[in-house]
Amino acid sequence: MHAVSVDHYENFPVASVLCPPRLRPAVAAIYWFARTADDIADEGDASPAERLAALAQYRAALESTVAGQAVTGPWQGVFGPLAEAMKVHHLPPALLRDLLSAFEQDVVKHDYADRAELLDYCRRSANPVGRLLLHLYGVDDDPARRQSDAICTALQLINFWQDLGVDTARGRLYPPMVDVARHGVTAQALLERQDTAATRALVADLVRWSRELMLSGAPLAHRVPGRAGWELRLVVQGGLRILDRIEGMDFASIAKRPTLRWFDVPLLFWRALCMRPAAVPMASKAT
């Protein structure tokens, strides 16, 4: 379960050995649908108008698929498998439409007034993926959906703070402007990637918010059955470990992008193993 768009869905459980074999084609179909739309919105040198026009065509292809009509052309390889997944698993089309609305927004909107506005973006850019996976796993109740939303939103936010320097260099400001102003930071300072005490305090605040969201959703890993539940544990712990890394560099992610290394893997497995339904361990400060 992973938030999108997150660096080409790098943590999306596509073809993972932990993903149940019967679900792998559907998971891969959802992945390629989302990744292709993300690329249309974000890759290459097309103009915003060209990107929006391509996304409109992509949306039309989705509606054709929903209507049971075959899609031809450059995206046939995306919508053919998606059509099969929708037929076999009855995927809710509204969640796929939400994803597209977020990618369309990416083309034209590059800053957010407050947390509510950013959460609304995450509701469409990240949460649909978790809900689609819950649907595949047969977990379908309101508490599970809320926990899934918390995990997916947290992963999206974690990626924003991890990529703070990358995004600001591209003119994108994901820290809510209310929080930015409250910490005495300016939008211009972020765009110029100024690593200051105020900027670090802002990131620390955003990291705390993201950690709280992740921990509130983490018990869902014990509701998702079988190997998929173990995969979700690793996804949760991977997100928490990125927050450790940001904290370990004194929240200076605007200056340097924190990453996970090979030696983090055993720790992630250990923390996944130690997770309990009633008390998910909070990752410790990175060293």
From TrEMBL:
Keyword check for Transferase, yes or no.
yes
Asked if the keyword Transferase belongs to this entry, the reply reads yes
- Which GO-annotated molecular functions does the record name? geranylgeranyl diphosphate synthase activity; squalene synthase [NAD(P)H] activity
Q: List UniProt keywords, sorted A-Z.
A: Transferase
Q: Which Pfam families match?
A: SQS_PSY
Q: GO terms for biological process? A: terpenoid biosynthetic process
Record EC number: 2.5.1.21
Q: Know the name of this protein?
A: Squalene synthase HpnC
Q: Which organism is it from?
A: Piscinibacter terrae
Q: Which gene encodes it?
A: hpnC
